[in-house]
Specification:
The complex is a heterodimer of chains A (about 325) and B (about 130). Chain A is α/β, with parallel strands linked by helices. Chain A is about 45% helix and about 15% strand. Chain A has 12 helices and 9 strands. In chain A, strands 7-6-5-4-3-2-1-9-8 form a 9-stranded parallel β-sheet. Chain B has about 130 residues and is mostly helical. Helix content of chain B is about 30%, strand content about 0%. Chain B has 4 helices and no strands. Classes of the chains: A alpha/beta (about 325), B mainly alpha (about 130). Chains A and B meet through α5, α6 and α7 of A and α2 of B.
């Protein structure tokens, strides 16, 4: 089973996942350098699937590259670009290379990217894809045809606690958990009260015992990226007050870090939250700074501690 | 297109903007056609819904699923189990049925045929509430 799967199974340890930078050309060595800041803190990192509908090196190739560099990948699979046959082929193909973590998403529309004229697919939707991945793990393709040796997939999904209809989002998350999701990476949310309501509904329903909730937090350097997310990233809204807090600060970069840290602390304080999904747009040592500030140990130390504990018991 | 599917189209197109997927789930989705969602999602709203409740793809249109969710709670005269089915996991679309009559497919049971590897939800799913 994947390392992420083992941490999930142990039940109570902190989980940190990270968004791996996309690949647009270059070599494995170049990529290793790009992963270096965030990777040591993460249990696993997302091998993204054409993020925001922009073409990049494919999810499967990226996951294999990460695997070779000693970073555990989470194969992200979206429904926008491929039909059910190709999606199953990607999951099985990556599993051949030892990629066992899969995160199933509906995906941004083609209009979010730089090739809006492309045909959108959406043969399956996110919840259906989770179910199909579960069925591969159980030993059969969607057609019913048997998978010789089923891959021990660790299946996850995403949900957006900050998008309408707010009261329904936790039920939709529960639907994904029932379909087989064991971890949920939440969309970045600049409305703490929405995140709180979402997590507390899941916690009250007992869903957080079956599924690790990982709110996403992104580290940015100033107000520019906040404005960009607000205007251009589907499903993310950043309140004007949050933007001006950073924009009007004496040191915007420092204020942006303070905001990032606060968001991480707030998310981790919510009962039912298992960890964080981190994205780093600062690339200035902020990941190490955050983890030091919050007392989060590097992944290798967390793992050693867990093994030590298991042996001790 | 057969006589029945033509009749179905005439009735359902003006009222629900029916796309003739041939496997109608209107009763489970607040009498709101999920095939009018630009992503043709059958299982609820994507994460791209705008702050004003409008569609990520068509900003001028209210999100089909925001509408569906609201209607599944508020539409009068709807049987309770139609409301309860809103959060069910609906199977992938059978693309072979496009253009056929969902009325005929309902009567024949054809619209309930799913791929052999599609497992039904566990029983607890029916009652699930977050």
């Amino acid at each position: 089973m994947s390392r992420l799967g083992e941490v999930l199974e142990r039940g109570d340890e902190l989980i940190i996942t990270g968004e791996a930078p996309v690949i647009d050309g270059g070599t494995l060595a170049d990529y290793e350098a790009k992963l270096a800041e965030l990777a040591p803190w993460c249990d696993a990192m997302n091998a993204t699937d054409n993020t925001a509908a922009h073409a990049h090196a494919s999810n499967v190739a990226m996951a294999i590259a990460m695997q070779r560099l000693g970073v555990e990948p989470i194969l992200q699979v979206v429904c926008r670009d491929k039909n059910r046959i190709a999606q199953q082929a990607d999951i099985m193909g990556a599993a051949l290379h030892g990629v066992e973590n899969v995160c199933c998403l509906t995906g941004d529309d083609v209009t979010a990217g730089d090739e809006s004229e492309a045909r959108r697919v959406f043969d399956l939707d996110g919840p259906q894809l989770i179910r199909v991945a579960s069925s591969l793990r159980e030993g059969r393709y969607l057609s019913g045809r048997s998978v010789g040796t089923p891959p021990p997939l660790v299946i996850g999904a995403v949900e957006n606690p900050g998008a309408q209809p707010f009261d329904y989002r936790a039920q939709r998350a529960a639907k994904k958990i029932m379909a087989g999701a064991r971890f949920l990476q939440l969309q970045i949310c600049y409305h703490p009260e929405r995140l709180e309501a979402f997590v507390s509904a899941l916690h009250a329903g007992g869903w957080t015992e079956r599924c690790a909730i990982l709110p996403s937090v992104v580290a940015v350097k100033g107000a520019g990226p906040l404005r960009f997310m607000d205007s251009s990233v589907p499903g993310i809204s950043v309140p004007a007050g949050v933007i001006s807090r950073v924009a009007d600060a004496a040191e915007p970069a420092e204020e942006a870090y303070a905001l990032f840290r606060e968001q991480c602390e707030h998310a981790l304080s919510l009962p039912g939250v298992r960890g964080l999904h981190l994205t780093d747009f600062r690339k200035d040592g902020s990941m190490a700074r955050l983890c030091t500030d919050l007392g989060i140990k590097p992944r290798s130390e967390r793992e050693q501690h867990a093994h030590h504990r298991v042996v001790a018991v | 297109m057969g006589l029945v599917s033509a009749l179905e189209h005439v009735v359902k197109k003006p009222v629900w903007d029916c796309r003739m997927c041939g496997q109608c789930v209107l009763h489970d989705t607040g009498m709101t056609c999920p095939m009018t969602c630009p992503k043709t999602l059958r299982n609820g709203p994507c994460g791209g819904v705008r702050e004003d409740g409008h569609c990520e793809v068509k900003p001028e249109m209210r999100c089909v699923w925001v509408k569906a969710e609201e209607r599944s709670r508020t539409l009068p005269l709807m049987p309770q189990d139609w409301r309860d089915h809103f959060n069910n996991l609906r199977p992938p679309v059978d693309n072979r049925l496009k253009g056929t009559s969902s009325w005929q497919n309902l009567v024949s049971g054809r619209d309930k045929v799913t791929p052999a590897g599609w497992t039904p939800e566990p029983a607890e799913a029916e009652q699930a509430e977050a």
